[in-house]
Amino acid sequence: MNYKDRNKKYNEYVKQKIPKTRSWPTLFNAFWVGGVICMIGQGIGDGIRAIWPDLSGSMVSAYISIILIFIASLLTGIGVYDRIGAFAGAGSIVPITGFSNSITSPAMDYKNEGIIFGLCVKMFSIAGPVIVIGVLASAVVGLIYLFI
Amino acid sequence: MEYFLNYLYVFLIGGFVCMLGQILVIRTNMTTSRILVSFVLLGVILEATTAYDYIYGVAQAGISVPIVGFGASLAKGAISAVRTKGILGIFTGGLEATAGGIAAAVIFAFIFSLIFRAKTKKTG
User: Fold this and answer.
1) Do the domain assignments include residue A17?
2) I need a surface site. Which of A50, A64, A82, B70 has the fewest CB within 10 A?
3) Is B92 within a domain?
4) Residue B85 CB burial class (10 angstroms; 0-12, 13-18, ≥19)
5) What is the ipTM of this complex?
6) B90 closest CB neighbour out of A33, A130, A143
7) Contact residues, B window 43-62, toward A, CB-based 8 Å cutoff
8) How does pLDDT run across B50-108, given as a tens digit for each residue?
9) pLDDT higher for B18 or A148?
10) DSSP assignment of B8-61, as one string?
11) Considering CB atoms only, which of A66, A90, A123 is closest to B35?
């Protein structure tokens, strides 16, 4: 058996083993869980505006993000967020809570390999690309706006 | 009544954005990283074309809580920093605007991963 046949067979084998996410009910779950997370964010924002009415819009948004990140990180720690994720799919990834989960989760998983070489190194193994691409894209936008 | 409508829009638009993400997952088997990156890029593009502000006017947290909002504040920070600081703004603007979120994610992730232990995953 040459290596091409072997690779082909291996790819077929991998395809069988990949968990299938082709069930349409997950679309509905992603929709309502994502919607509810956004409504919680809106509720936090309204609460903050009620307590400190003179905060600027961007500061309120920052507080919403920080509080949601805190909640998601805590839920990841106690193992609840993974269950939400299994149920809601992208409904738990796309909100900012998913960003928080993607940082806390590998940090927890690799804690055993040490604080520096496990926790700190692996912390950005999923969310790192987000920051790299985000910074690059914002620099490009800044460069464009410099000339217009 | 206005309050109720507000939350309805937040729910519908926020849910719709997440459903787009789920469609990506179903159609392309994208990983978490790629989904996050594509939605951040979407946010940057929406903000750069000023479309984000119109959507935010209706959807509020429905568009700012999804990671699209993170991308939008990156771009918004870069744009306003370029206007006030010139070339330096290209480098400082994006991260300055999102520093709160990134720092919060790092700080809470560090604390909670020290406190809690990962459950051993059952892999079949």
Assistant:
1) no
2) A50
3) yes
4) middle
5) 0.91
6) A143
7) 44, 47-48, 60-62
8) 999 999 998 889 999 999 999 999 999 999 999 999 999 999 999 999 999 999 999 99
9) B18
10) HHHHHHHHHHHHHHHHHHHHH---HHHHHHHHHHHHHHHHHTTHHHHHHHHHTH
11) A90
pLDDT of residue B124: 39
Look up the domain containing A81 and give its range.
32-147
- Predicted local distance difference test score (pLDDT) of residue B9: 93
Domain that holds residue B26: 2-115
Task: Provide the pLDDT for residue B123.
Answer: 47
- Three-class SS of residue A123? coil
B-facing residues of A in 63-92 (CB < 8 A) are 64-66, 68-70, 73-74, 76-79, 88-91
Is B82 touching A (CB cutoff 8 A)?
yes
Residue A115 lies in a domain: yes
Cβ–Cβ under 8 Å, residues B64 and B43: no
Contact residues on chain B for A76, CB-CB shorter than 8 A: 112
B79 in any annotated domain? yes
Q: Do A89 and B24 touch (CB under 8 A)?
A: no
Residue written as token pair 């509020």: B60
Within 8 A by CB and 6+ apart from B6, the residues are A42, B60
Instruction: Give the model confidence (pLDDT) of B26-51 as tens digits.
Output: 888 788 889 999 999 999 999 999 99
